[in-house]
Amino acid sequence: MNKRSLNRSKVISDWILTSVLLIGSLVMVIPFIWMVFTSFDWAARLKIPFPPRFWPEEFSIRTYQMAFTNIPMLKYMINSLIVSVGVILFSLTSALLSGYAISKLKFKGANIVLLLALSTMMIPFEMTMIPQYLMFAEFKLLDTYWAFFLPALNYAFGTFLAKSFIDQLPGSLREAAIIDGASEFTVFIKIYLPLCIPILATMIILQFLAVWNDLLWPLLALKTPDKYTIQLGLAMFSYNKDLPLPSVIMAATTVSLIPVIVLYLFLQRFIVESIALSGIKQ
Fold first, then answer.
1. Cβ atoms of 133 and 221 closer than 8 Å
2. Using one digit for the tens of pLDDT, what is the confidence trace for 153-200?
3. What percent of the chain is modeled with pLDDT above 70?
4. CA distance 257 to 146
5. Looking at residue 146, which CATH number applies to its domain?
6. Tally of domains within the chain
7. How far apart are CA 144 and CA 224, in angstroms?
8. Which of 2, 202, 215, 223 has the CA that lies 20 to 30 A from 176?
9. Half-sphere exposure of 27 toward its Cβ, with a 13 Å CA cutoff?
10. Judgement on whether residues 96 and 175 belong to the same structural domain of the protein
C-alpha cells in the first residue's frame, strides 16, 4: 500500500471516529439542552410538550420565580453544600493519609490493606444501606449530617487514586526530609500534600458530584424537611404536588446544577493534569 493510500485511510478513519464522538456527545448533551430550554417555557408549566421542542413557545423567567417561591432552594442548596464539604473533608483526609502510608511507608501487609479496601468497592451500596441504616439508627445519628460524614471515611477509590498518584512522586524527597529530622506527618503535610493538588482536585469533583446528586441515602437518613439536600427537596416537591409543573421543576433542576458546573470549570485544569500524571481513567 503506497503512502497516498495510507493517508487516505487515515483521513477516513479520523472522519469516522470524529462522527462517532460527535453523535455520542449530542446524545449526552441534548437532554441537558432540552431541560434548559423547557425551564424557560411558560407554556410548558402544566404539561411536558411532546414531541419535545428545543425553543420555548412562550419565553419567560416566571418559571424560575415560581421555583424560588414554592421551593426553599437556597436552604436546600446550603444543606447540600454543608453535606458535600463535610464528606469531602472526611473522605479526602482518609484517602490521602492511607494512600501516602501504603505508597511510601512500605509497611508489612500494605498490599493486603489496599486489596481489602478495594474489595469493598465490589459490594453495591444497595446491599449495605439497610445494615448501615440500622447501625446509624442504633447510634441515634439518623437525621443528622454525621450519617453522611462517617461513611465517607471509607473512600476506597480515593485511597487507590492517592496511592497511584503518590507512587509517581520520588521517595527521595521523604528520605531527605527524614534525615533532616522531619516527622512523618511533617513530610506528608509540607512536601507531599502540595504536590497532590491535581489528584485532590479530581477527588473533590468526583465526591462533590456523588454527594450533590445523591438521592437514595438522604431519602433514608433525613426526616426533617429543614435538613433536606437539594435533590431530596426537589424530589419531595415533585412527589407532593398535585400538579406536575414540569417547567418549574426543570428551572429548579437547572439552578441546582450551577454549583457543579462552576466547580468543574474551576478545577478542570487540575483534573486533566492528574489523569495525565497518574495514567488513571475513570
1. yes
2. 989 999 998 998 899 888 888 888 888 888 888 999 999 999 998 889
3. 93
4. 24
5. 1.10.3720.10
6. 2
7. 9
8. 202
9. 6
10. yes
pTM of the model: 0.83
Q: Could you tell me if residue 275 is inside a domain? A: no
Alpha-carbon distance of 267 to 164, in angstroms, equals 20
How many other CB atoms are there within 10 angstroms of residue 129's CB atom? 14
Q: What is the three-class DSSP state of 59?
A: strand
Can you read off the three cell numbers belonging to residue 78?
Answer: 446550603
Range of the domain at 13: 3-60
Round to whole Å and give the CA distance between 59 and 53.
13
For 242-261, what is each residue's pLDDT tens digit? Answer: 666 788 888 999 999 999 88
Who's near 233: CB < 8 A, 6+ residues apart? 71, 72, 73, 75, 76, 79, 225
> Which range scores top for mean pLDDT: 4-8, 38-42, 273-277?
38-42
Q: Which class for 11: exposed (0-12), middle (13-18), buried (19 or more C-beta within 10 A)?
A: exposed
Cell 439497610, residue?
Answer: 130
- Quote the cell numbers at residue 194: 502540595
